[in-house]
Specification:
Chain A is α+β, with helices and mostly antiparallel strands and about 475 residues long. Chain A has helices at about 5-10, 15-35, 45-60, 100-110, 150-160, 175-180, 215-225, 260-265, 270-285, 300-320, 330-340, 345-365, 395-400, 405-410, 440-450; strands at about 40, 70-75, 110-115, 130, 135, 165-170, 185, 205-210, 255-260, 290, 370-375, 385-390, 390-395, 415-420, 425-430. In chain A, helix 7 packs antiparallel against helix 15 (about 440-450). Chain B is flat, with a radius of gyration of 18 Å. Classes of the chains: A alpha+beta (about 475), B mainly alpha (about 60).
């Protein structure tokens, strides 16, 4: 059940937050052994918060769509007094003395926090194959990765172990698991959602955003977590819109931009076919398509890599010198690699980044949104470093972030929505828009959702 | 290139396990290949990419 479907029952007191929370917790506990989406389930605190929510609603103090809704969040978001691990050995017993700004906002909206979700260690990877907490598994096929780094969030929402979740995204870490788990994932504009109290991976690329079962749930959750915060230097003081009321699926005046050279180059042929079919459906609804050129995208992979590697290495420099054996081997190599670029390399990567931003700005003077596949490949098996792309094995990390990385470099809002299946695995379609135009990309995602691309299919559930 | 990588990291106080060097060499070589694509980017000194916000984090 989506939050959109659940919340009227809670509001009208036909379902109690206590009942919902108990059901979700029972279900999460029953399935976690196999999915391994949770690092920690906080039943006692969740039930206490559920009783509080029930009392508030009974007293006529209903706070909105997410009031009384149980939700688990990624384990790099600080919850005061609760262990927050970043799925690492080094922070295995770290207890923050503050709530993240987004956690404060969830609490203010009446959300019931049910626990902390598995992730790729320090968010620096896309497999969620944790050496410290075990691999998280894709609910559609337990032998496959759930994507990452917010893989626990993707798996928990897809497997109904959480009604919605928050993820973080530095090169695609919301959109990648959303795509491979068949859910909706929104990376908002950089600065739209405050990040204080979120353990960083790379300061200038990091974002926090909703991971949900429907576009309307994502819009509602963005309303909850968005807003200016003076303690986050990257926060931007622009009023938060009422995103849910902007969803009408109207495509008549929408111009869709397509960039063939970068976003449709070297893509799994089935994924490409599905994305083009969905674009054609939007055209049938009245949208127009225009091909666009973004020449500087050829610099995007270099600029993204130099930026993320350097910033992440700076954050973990001391631990890499003093206790390197406490990192998982896969991220230790990436931190070592991040020590190699020079300061000049980093600054030139920022100059390239500005060129890319300027090119995107020009594109959005001509078109309303850009549509592409979210990923060029489907989820590989757990433990594989390579993935098959049209019959050829290619490096997993290099390829899986190719289409999501530009959204982080430019800071532009990017949404992944399910658009069909390749075999038994869901496929995601990415919609990018101009800065702070989340409402616009959500509405295009909503139009796609109305065509029922998943045809009602759900992961084969394990234990009820 | 493995030797240069090992030396560069050692100078920064970082001990690299021998079995990391092959992957480091492969990934660093890929980055250098990607860097070649940027040779035509004509980065000008007046391309402002880093900024300094006066007085603090935000202009309130």
């Amino acid at each position: 059940m989506t939050v959109e479907q659940l919340s009227p029952f809670i509001k009208n007191r036909e379902i109690s937050p206590i009942e919902v929370t108990e059901l979700v917790l029972d279900y999460a506990e029953a399935n976690n052994e196999e999915i391994n989406a949770f690092i920690q389930i906080t039943r006692e605190q969740a039930m206490k918060d559920a009783r509080k929510a029930e009392k508030e609603i009974a007293n006529g103090m209903y706070k909105g769509m997410y009031h009384g809704v149980p939700m688990a969040i990624k384990d790099n978001l600080y919850v005061k007094g609760q262990v927050t691990t970043m799925a690492s050995k080094i922070h295995r017993e770290f207890v923050p003395d503050m709530d993240a700004a987004v956690v404060e906002k969830l609490r203010a909206a009446g959300v019931i926090l049910t626990g902390k979700l598995n992730m790729h260690e320090y968010a620096w990877g896309i497999t969620n194959n944790s050496p410290h907490f075990g691999p998280c598994r894709n609910p559609w096929d337990l032998s496959k990765i759930p994507g990452g780094s917010s893989g626990g969030s993707g798996a928990a929402v897809a497997a109904h172990m959480s009604h919605a979740s928050l993820g973080t995204d530095t090169a695609g870490s919301i959109r990648i698991p959303s795509s491979v788990c068949g859910i909706v994932g929104l990376k908002p504009t950089h600065g739209r959602v405050p990040k204080n109290g979120c353990f960083p991976l790379a300061w200038t690329l990091d974002h926090i955003g909703p991971m949900t079962k429907s576009v309307k749930d994502a819009a509602g959750l963005l309303e909850v977590i968005a807003g200016y915060h003076p303690e986050d230097p990257t926060s931007v003081n622009i009023p938060v819109e009422n995103y849910t009321t902007r969803l009408n699926g109207e495509m008549k005046d929408v111009i869709i931009g397509i960039n063939e050279d970068y976003f449709f180059h070297n893509v799994d042929s089935d994924i490409e076919r599905l994305v083009r079919e969905n674009i054609n459906q939007l055209v049938d609804m009245g949208a127009k398509v225009e091909e666009v050129s973004i020449p500087s995208l050829k610099y995007a992979e270099y600029s993204e890599y130099i930026t993320i590697l350097s910033e992440a290495a700076a954050i973990h420099h001391r631990d890499l010198k003093e206790r390197p054996e406490d990192f998982g081997d896969d991220i230790r190599v990436l931190f070592e690699l991040g020590e190699l670029p020079s300061a000049v390399d980093y600054i030139q990567a920022q100059q390239l980044r500005r060129k890319i931003k300027q090119d995107f700005q020009k594109v959005f003077e001509k078109v309303d949104v850009l549509i592409s596949p979210t990923l060029p490949v489907i989820a590989p098996n757990i433990g594989e470093k390579y993935v098959m792309l049209n019959g050829e094995p290619v490096d997993l990390v290099d390829h899986i972030i190719r289409f999501t990385g530009p959204g982080n470099l430019t800071g532009l809002p990017s949404l992944s929505v399910p658009c069909g299946f390749k075999g038994d695995l869901p496929v995601g379609l990415q919609i990018m828009g101009p800065a702070f135009e989340e409402a616009r990309i959500l509405n295009v995602g909503y139009a796609i959702e109305q065509t029922n691309p998943l045809k009602g299919r759900k992961p084969k559930l394990i234990k009820s | 290139m493995k030797k240069e990588i090992k030396t560069a990291l050692r100078q920064r106080g970082i001990a690299v396990p021998e079995d990391h060097l092959e992957e480091l060499e492969m990934r660093w070589s890929s980055l250098l290949e990607l860097q070649k694509l940027t040779n035509d980017a004509y980065l000008d000194v007046h391309d402002l990419s880093l900024k300094n916000i006066p007085g603090g984090d935000h202009i309130e």
